[in-house]
Amino acid sequence: xxxxxxxxxxxxxxxxxxxxxxxxxxxxxxxxxxxxxxxxxxxxxxxxxxxxxxxxxxxxxxxxxxxxxxxxxxxxxxxxxxxxxxxxxxxxxxxxxxxxxxxxxxxxxxxxxxxxxxxxxxxxxxxxxxxxxxxxxxxxxxxxxxxxxxxxxxxxxxxxxxxxxxxxxxxxxxxxxxxxxxxxxxxxxxxxxxxxxxxxxxxxxxxxxxxxxxxxxxxxxxxxxxxxxxxxxxxxxxxxxxxxxxxxxxxxxxxxxxxxxxxxxxxxxxxxxxxxxxxxxxxxxxxxxxxxxxxxxxxxxxxxxxxxxxxxxxxxxxxxxxxxxxxxxxxxxxxxxxxxxxxxxxxxxxxxxxxxxxxxxxxxxxxxxxxxxxxxxxxxxxxxxxxxxxxxxxxxxxxxxxxxxxxxxxxxxxxxxxxxxxxxxxxxxxxxxxxxxxxxxxxxxxxxxxxxxxxxxxxxxxxxxxxxxxxxxxxxxxxxxxxxxxxxxxxxxxxxxxxxxxxxxxxxxxxxxxxxxxxxxxxxxxxxxxxxxxxxx
Length: 537
Ligand code: C2O
Ligand code: CU
Ligand code: CU
Description:
Elements: H1 3-14, H2 17-23, E1 47-58, E2 66-77, E3 83-84, E4 93-97, E5 101-108, E6 116-119, E7 140-146, E8 152-158, H3 164-169, E9 173-179, H4 181-186, E10 194-204, E11 210-211, H5 216-221, E12 227-230, E13 233-234, E14 237-241, E15 244-251, E16 258-262, E17 268-272, E18 277-284, E19 287-289, E20 294-300, E21 309-314, E22 317-318, H6 322-326, E23 347-348, E24 352-361, E25 390-398, E26 401-404, E27 419-420, E28 424-432, H7 445-450, E29 456-460, E30 466-472, E31 494-497, E32 501-509, E33 514-520, H8 523-527, E34 531-536
Parallel strand pairs: 1-5, 4-9, 10-15, 14-24, 25-28, 27-34
Antiparallel strand pairs: 1-2, 3-4, 5-7, 6-8, 8-9, 10-11, 10-12, 12-13, 15-20, 16-19, 16-21, 17-18, 17-20, 21-24, 22-23, 25-26, 28-32, 29-31, 29-33, 30-32, 33-34
Bound molecules: CU-O-CU linkage and copper (II) ion (CU) (2 copies).
């Protein structure tokens, strides 16, 4: 692990409990540290799970086992299909139904604080895994929520203050699926024909241990590994039949962005985005998938020869950022990984193999792709509670740190502009701050300004949003190599904002009051403080 990480763990271990609670932000408010440690007797759970985060050694690649952090789960009550174990280091898949009441007893058995967030799910503040609710080793937290999301693919992961990146990197993540009535009517491929695919990049030592080291560039771009894992394993492939499949893809990487395509040029058929199925399938040459984004694909192997293979790849793309130019001579372009990828998130040289489908069995029949999927109301600016008001999410940088709306993360703080009335619908504009703003930090606004433009996957907790518009202000950004891979018609909780780009979204804030995070889901950016709260009241 990184030196930072090791020092931190050491640091925490060396302190007594009292010192520890005082040192953890969010623990500072004494009795207002409301750790929910007892189940609410009034909450009649349909599903109860014991979820434990602890250290383990698991087989990821051939040879020695890898030391990881891993979620282990046990079903205490509810449908047996609720948990599906995966080989490798990911937590089990949690399969929920809309309307279910879920109780999760989360046990932290790691020698560092931890908290778990249900990414993409619409749950109350205290159940959302805000870093202020981190628990230390030996403690537990009781999450209780009703599944209000429609059918789709979410995920869970650690959200610990300044430790999210290393904890997720070491394994603290898992997939969540949600099923509902509308989806059942569609009769989409299910069971073995519904394939989860979590994509992550990692770097291993010679002894097969995870290495988390940020070089100079990666301090800005985020961690980039040289080995692709699919569902927590290296070189994974799956045997399929000559029929249609549903593939649920999550980019669970810390910072790597993928440009996903089939190796034989078959168009990519998308049936779902982050938070739900689409209204109708969309066909694209490739799909861009930034950290935390999900996409559901339809792929039909009918008519393919038994013995043939289809590979999901990440295609090359080139993003020219001001940062690269600012550092002179394409300084960001160095550091070829051993798979031939460039060690920066801005560009990918060459193709990267992600996952192989091996056609192994001939079958007679296949379901057909439905022309219509689920009903969806397209929101427009007119649906906003106050169409004139646009809440800013300004991406900026000061003192070599990325910020949102001019600030870094401050546990339970929010600005006036971060206050949102509950049960409202808001227009929001995500954009890169103008370069002049860098000067406020007092350290050479020019260079600061130059370094502001990186791609940032911006994520908002709470309900899913829709994209109203995208505007590219930098004609030289290389946008052409990625622009045909965005899906702007679905429900989203994370949107990739490219250098020079401005994205307008519309988002409902229904049901729940309190603090809800918004942040960059490049996990290194998040840990450096590129995160803020909205206060919904
Ligand atoms: Cu996936 Cu706030 O996170
Ligand atoms: Cu989230
Ligand atoms: Cu970022």
